[in-house]
Structure formats: structure tokens, C-alpha cells
Design a protein that fits this description.
Largest sheet of chain A: none
CATH superfamily of the largest domain in chain B: P-loop containing nucleotide triphosphate hydrolases
InterPro entries (chain B): AAA+_ATPase, ABC_transporter-like_ATP-bd, ABC_transporter-like_CS, ABC_transporter_ATP-bind, NO3_transporter_ATP-bd-like, P-loop_NTPase
Order of helices and strands of chain B: HHEEEHEEEHHHEHEHEEHH
Bound molecules: adenosine-5'-triphosphate, magnesium ion
Distance between the termini of chain B: 62 Å
Organism (chain B): Paraflavisolibacter caeni
Keywords (chain B): ATP-binding, Cell membrane, Membrane, Nucleotide-binding, Transport
Membrane topology (chain B): Peripheral membrane protein
GO molecular function, one term (chain B): ATP binding
Structural class of chain B: alpha/beta
Oligomer: heterodimer
Shape of chain B: globular
CATH class of the largest domain in chain A: Mainly Alpha
Number of strands of chain B: 10
CATH architecture of the largest domain in chain A: Orthogonal Bundle
Distance between the termini of chain A: 29 Å
Helix content of chain B: 40-55%
CATH superfamily of the largest domain in chain A: MetI-like
Largest sheet of chain B: 6 strands, mixed
Radius of gyration of chain A: 22 Å
Shape of chain A: globular
CATH topology of the largest domain in chain A: MetI-like fold
CATH architecture of the largest domain in chain B: 3-Layer(aba) Sandwich
Chain lengths: 256, 306
């Protein structure tokens, strides 16, 4: 209990420091940067009616956020559906590993945004191209961690499968997957983190809808308050996504 | 045999070689008939592991015949190759030389006729106690409904007094409890050969004693038909349980130092046998075999450092 109160105290003081620095910065820039108070009032204004939809260029913050999350969900979902099985294959077969490893090593450091034109060329629609970018983004961390998890199943656990004659299917479902779950989830957690980073940039590029577009649109409308609000929201949502996966991670970690 | 004799003579081979050939042929023909009750036959086996520093030979030229229904204890210093030997019989470790016959068949891999208790329990940490045993039973026993298999799991968990803990994960168990789960798992598949690698090592003296009795009880219930090989560091345990105690030399390239018979009547009573002169003799002998090694090692070490 005491610990909880303490961590709350830390949280509040942390934000107090942030807001004071922000206040100072806005005073120094003579109001170029909106003050925290002004931003907060805009923030609450925005959340008074978050789901209004007044045409293509005028949507509530809730709608924008929802659309971005939907893209991330689809892209991340598809990416994971590709990355996990492929990771299992790479991790359990030396030849597949040797063939695919160089490819992964070359593609992994490429900024996901570089794929955007390719997506656009293939899909012709910027919405789908954005999702395509998220798919690519979500691939690498999951792929690499899944492969690592699968390749490092402890010998003791493999021995159980051998000694008692587990079928291939039982081996995969009762030994291989549970044993690599912690690392698979680590991969997913990293992936969703990067996906959330990238969606903002991708939507600035693609335009139309989404939280990234909202940031760009607010900047064009010279509403830095809205930009600041969006930054806060993006941060909070990112935190929530990460928390979700860290809970999952705890759930699937076992004491031996 | 007559015709064989003639043929051999016809080829004019020297008599010594001739009789050896005869012996070998006779062995091949009569061997299995004479020894139908041979459960495990370790034939001149050597096991080497490739390591970073080159090939490491763990055990060498091991010859060991174990009859059906026999209880054999393996004893030897840490790292001498006891687990390796067990792994060979179970089929988990491939011999680099020689072969192992179990239940009349050449061992080429693990099989449900051989139940293993691993030295480090090897329970799956994400499965409950019940599931750990159930999955093994489900894999090893091909016939029967899932209700029947669940019944088997229940019986075996009750046998090791863990039925109350069936829904716990291994991480929530004590070392001794984990060991009992591993024992129940090996028993549950009802193998004709039980390979127990220090099965009672993590148990306190009381639990250990009752597990000894349980083990012998099960062995008796099964008309003493199960062959049991167990690794132990405990001389008393070895004598109490075993018909023979196999003492291994120190590695590398460990060989069998001596096989000591334990001609004590069964059922044995723990309290009484310790006063039996035969027991005391065997105990002294084993002590000598094991400690002797120590002193020789010590002298060698001293020589090396000197
Ligand atoms: N997979 C392996 N690769 C390389 N060396 C191995 C391997 N398995 C065992 N060894 C070596 O073989 C030797 C015998 O090991 P083993 O586990 O059989 O000993 P042990 O008699 O069971 O010892 P303990 O009583 O400590 O359990 C050791 O020196 C060990 O380092
Ligand atoms: Mg061992």
C-alpha cells in the first residue's frame, strides 16, 4: 500500500517537473509554445465531443485515435501472423535460418517509411499503404525474438518430449510454444511499440485520417495546443499498449 | 552341433580358434534361450562427446547385463558418467561404440518400455502437476480413453501423496515434491524398465525412506517383473534397494570398477538389515571402493602439484 502511494507521489512530481519546464519554455518563447494551462483547456474541449464527424477534414480526436489504432491493430495483427510462424520455422530449422538470416539482417534496419511508396504502388490507396508499412514494421522484432525463443528451448524440456514420445503436435503445443512464449511476447511488445511510433509518421505522409494526420493538420491550422494535446495522447496510448503486453509477458513467464 | 564341428574341422583351423568360434556360435544360438530373462544388455559401450577441446570420452567399454526384475544401483563419483550410462539405456544418448539391447530390441531411441526419472526432474513449468503426468501418459500409452488415462494419473499422484497438489505448477513445489512428480510420471507409463537418476536425492530422510518402501511395494505388486536401474550417491540406499551395486571408476573414460552382489533376503527391513553382518560387509566393501578412489586421486593430485 505504502509503495503504491509512493509511486503515485513520484508520478505526480515527475509531471510537475515536466509541466514547470513546459511553462518556462512557453514563457521564454513568449507564447510561441502554448502554456500547459491553455493546452489543457483545449484538451478538455477536444474530449468534450471526441467522436464528432463533420466531413473528411474535420473529425473528433476520438475518431482519429480510433482509426489509427485500427490501422495498427490490422497491420500488427497481419505482421504477427506472418512473423510468428516464420520465426518458428527459422528458429527450428538451421537451413531456413541460414537462408533467411541475411535477408532479415538487410531489411531490418530499413526505416519502415521507406516502404510507403512501395505500398502505395501495390495498393493504390494510401490507407492500405499505411497498413502495409505497419505490417513491415511489426515483422522484425517478432520474427527475431520468436526465432530466438524457438531456438533456445531448454534441452531438459526437449528431453521430456523425446523420453515420453510426444507427437510432433504435442511437442509444438506443449513444449516448443510455451517455452518460447516469453520471447514471442517480448517480440510482440517491441513490435507494437515501433508500430505505434511509425503510425504517426506514416499518417503524416499518407494524410486523410488518423492521429498522425491530426498532428500535421493541427500544425497547418497553426494550433500548437492541439499538437501538444496529440503528443500527450500518443504518449499515453503508447504506454497503455506497452502495459498490455507487459502484463501478458508476466502471465506467460514461469518459474522452473 | 555335430555338423558344425565337422565343417570347422574340414577347414583345418587351429583348435584354439576353432573352439572359440564354436563358443561364439553357440552363444549366439543358445544365449537368448538360456537368458530369456535378460532385460538390459549393455554390450561393450563407449560414449564420447564432441566438445570445444576435442572429443571427451565419458564412459568406455561398459559391459553390463541386467536380468528382468532385477534392481541395480549405479554408484560412483560425480561426473563419472552415471547419467550418461542411464541416457544410453534410455536411448537419449547414442553410444559411439557398442550397443544396448533392452527387452530384446536394440535401443535406437527412447521408448515407452523405459520410464525415466531425470536427475533434474525435467517437469514442464507451464503445465500443472496433473497435466505434466497426463501428457506423458497420453503420449506413451496409445490405447485407452482419456478418462482411463486420467485415472492412471490420479492413482500415481496418490501413490506419491501429491493428489492434493495436482493443480499446482512445478514452480510452486518444493524440490522433493518435484522429484515425486517425476517419479509418478515415470511410473504412470507403466514401463518394464525404470531408469531412475538420483530419484531420491532431494528428499529428506523420512520421505526418502517411505519412497523406498513405495518403490519396493510397486515392484512387488508387479510380481517383481520390473527392472529398475537407479543412480544414487547413497550407499545405504543402494544396499537396501538393489540386488547388485555397480561401482564406476572416475572419468574420463570411466569403466566399471566392480559389481557387488547384495545377497540379502527380501523383504528387507531397514532397521534390521543394518545389523546384518552381510550388510556390514557390503557396506564396508562399497565404502572401500569409493573412498579408495578418493585417496588415490588425492595422492595423484599431490604428485601433480608437487
Ligand atoms: N552432452 C555432453 N557434452 C559433453 N560432455 C558431456 C555431455 N554430457 C555429459 N558430459 C560429460 O560426461 C561426464 C559424465 O557426465 P554424467 O552427467 O554422466 O556424470 P554423472 O556421473 O551423472 O555425475 P553426477 O553424479 O554429478 O550427476 C562429465 O564429465 C560430463 O562433463
Ligand atoms: Mg548424473
Amino acid at each position: 500500500m505504502n509503495k503504491k502511494i509512493l509511486s503515485l507521489v513520484y508520478l505526480v512530481s515527475g509531471f510537475a517537473v515536466l509541466f514547470s519546464l513546459w511553462q518556462i519554455a512557453s514563457m521564454v518563447t513568449k507564447g510561441e509554445l502554448p502554456t500547459p494551462w491553455k493546452t489543457m483547456s483545449v484538451f478538455f474541449e477536444m474530449w468534450a465531443d471526441p467522436f464528432y464527424d463533420a466531413g473528411p477534414n474535420d473529425k473528433g480526436i476520438g475518431v482519429q485515435l480510433f482509426l489509427s489504432l485500427k490501422r495498427v491493430a490490422i497491420g500488427f495483427g497481419l505482421g504477427s501472423l506472418i512473423a510468428i510462424p516464420l520465426g518458428i520455422l527459422i528458429g527450428s530449422n538451421k537451413t531456413v535460418f541460414n537462408i533467411l538470416n541475411p535477408v532479415v539482417q538487410v531489411l531490418r534496419p530499413v526505416s519502415p517509411l521507406a516502404w510507403f511508396p512501395l505500398g502505395l504502388a501495390m495498393m493504390h490507396v494510401s490507407d492500405k499503404a499505411t497498413i502495409f508499412v505497419i505490417v513491415i514494421t511489426s515483422l522484425w522484432p517478432t520474427l527475431i525474438n520468436t526465432a530466438l525463443g524457438v531456438a533456445s528451448v531448454p534441452q531438459d524440456h526437449k528431453n521430456v518430449g523425446r523420453a515420453f514420445g510426444f507427437s510432433r503436435w504435442k511437442y509444438i503445443t506443449k513444449i516448443l510454444l510455451p517455452s518460447s512464449f516469453p520471447l514471442i511476447i517480448t517480440g510482440l511488445r517491441l513490435s507494437i511499440g515501433v508500430a505505434w511510433l511509425v503510425i504517426v509518421a506514416a499518417e503524416m505522409l499518407s494524410g486523410g485520417v488518423g492521429i498522425g494526420f491530426f498532428v500535421w493538420d493541427s500544425w497547418n491550422a497553426l494550433s500548437l495546443e492541439k499538437v501538444m494535446c496529440a503528443i500527450l495522447i500518443i504518449g499515453l496510448v503508447g504506454l497503455l499498449l506497452d502495459k498490455m503486453f507487459s502484463l501478458l509477458q508476466k502471465r506467460f513467464t514461469y518459474a522452473v | 552341433m555335430e555338423t558344425l564341428n565337422n565343417k570347422v574341422q574340414a577347414h583345418n583351423i587351429d583348435p584354439q580358434k576353432q573352439s572359440r568360434i564354436k563358443e561364439r556360435v553357440a552363444d549366439a544360438i543358445i544365449g537368448p534361450l538360456l537368458n530369456p530373462a535378460l532385460s538390459i544388455d549393455v554390450k561393450n559401450v563407449t560414449v564420447s562427446f564432441p566438445t570445444a577441446k576435442g572429443v571427451y570420452t565419458a564412459v568406455k567399454d561398459i559391459d553390463l547385463q541386467i536380468r528382468k526384475g532385477e534392481i541395480v544401483a549405479l554408484i560412483g563419483h560425480s561426473g563419472c558418467g552415471k547419467s550418461t550410462l542411464m541416457g544410453m539405456i534410455s536411448g537419449m544418448v547414442k553410444p559411439s561404440n557398442g550397443e544396448v539391447i533392452a527387452n530384446g530390441k536394440k535401443v535406437s531411441g527412447p521408448g515407452p518400455d523405459r520410464g525415466i526419472v531425470f536427475q533434474n526432474y525435467s517437469l514442464l513449468p507451464w503445465l500443472t502437476v496433473f497435466q505434466n503426468i497426463y501428457e506423458a501418459v497420453d503420449s506413451a500409452i496409445k490405447t485407452g480413453s482419456s478418462a482411463q488415462k486420467k485415472k492412471i494419473v490420479e492413482e500415481n499422484l496418490k501413490m506419491v501423496n501429491l493428489w492434493a497438489h495436482k493443480d499446482k505448477l512445478p514452480g510452486q513445489l518444493s524440490g522433493g515434491m518435484k522429484q515425486r512428480v517425476a517419479i509418478a510420471r515415470a511410473f504412470a507409463i507403466n514401463p518394464s524398465i525404470l531408469l531412475l537418476d538420483e530419484p531420491f536425492g532431494a528428499l529428506d530422510a523420512l520421505t526418502k525412506s517411505s519412497m523406498h518402501v513405495e518403490l519396493l511395494k510397486l515392484w512387488n505388486l508387479d510380481n517383481r517383473e520390473k527392472t529398475i536401474v537407479l543412480v544414487t550417491h547413497d550407499i545405504e540406499e543402494a544396499i537396501f534397494l538393489a540386488d547388485r551395486v555397480v561401482v564406476l571408476n572416475n572419468g574420463p573414460a570411466a569403466t566399471i570398477k566392480e559389481i557387488v552382489d547384495v545377497p540379502l533376503e527380501r523383504p528387507r527391513n531397514k532397521k534390521d538389515i543394518v545389523h546384518d553382518p552381510v550388510y556390514m560387509d557390503i557396506h564396508d566393501k562399497l565404502m572401500g571402493l569409493l573412498i579408495d578412489k578418493f585417496s588415490i586421486e588425492d595422492i595423484n593430485d599431490m604428485k601433480k602439484t608437487a
